[in-house]
Structure of Putative metal-dependent hydrolase:
Amino acid sequence: MNAPAKFDIEASAPALGTATPDDLDIVVRDRRFLRGQTAKRWWLNGDPIATAWFNALSATFPRGEAFFIESVRAFRDGADPKLAGEIRAFIKQEINHTREHIVLNKLAESSGYDIAFIDKRVEELLALLKDRPAYLNLAATMALEHFTAMFGQELLANPAHLKGAEGDLGDIWRWHSVEEIEHKGVAYDTWLHATRDWSRWRRWKLKSLMMVLVTKRFIGNRVKDMKDLLAQDGLTGWKVTARIWAYLLFRPGFLRRIALPWLAFFLPGFHPWNEDDRHLISKYEGDFSDALLPA
């Protein structure tokens, strides 16, 4: 475990339109998982469909979270002291998430899966974004951070999603979920800072279009990833595709359950902290008390 590090978040005037709680603490929980873990192919309750979903998500995180960090960091200059402190804490949390999901991804590979194609797909997609305006990358990050916050809330609120995930295999997702909820307003507040001279209409139009594009690409690619992973188990055909959509939409229905918070993103006056779900953080706080590093 790394030595404790503290990032001071100074009080200041609130950012334009922010609903981030004044008393929010973004805490770096420097946890390490899965060291010495024995690889298990269908680690989530012996279910290949559920395992494929979480493996597909995890495989995107190392490059994806590096993209989030760079997109937010590009607009750190000129931010008020409170937001600047939250950005520093956000970056530290995301670095830790990347480190731990690299371990989880290696474990999936040790169980016999080739997941390099997922990382390659993310790499190719990010290469297409390299030369576009930085505010577009920030808009994409803001939309994707809303996804990760929705996923985190759903995982913590409905333990059925991780039922059968033993020890660290479940804990790594709960830990990640806690911190995604905690920093869910950072990219959005950075967006408000970066577009502070824009009209509300321009800001809403771009963020809404970006969310539609991100949703289409994110869900479409993850379903493709699941199919490719399941094909490595010899599971192919329309029945497998039907099982994937049944898992995502009906039981347990991950995507169905986040439909309302997804729609909320398009409402005028939306902010991630319009719903204060910190009770989900405190519910699991005791599990991580040995690794709390106040940010």
User: Anything to note?
Assistant: Strands lie at 27-29, 292-294. The chain has one domain: 41-294.
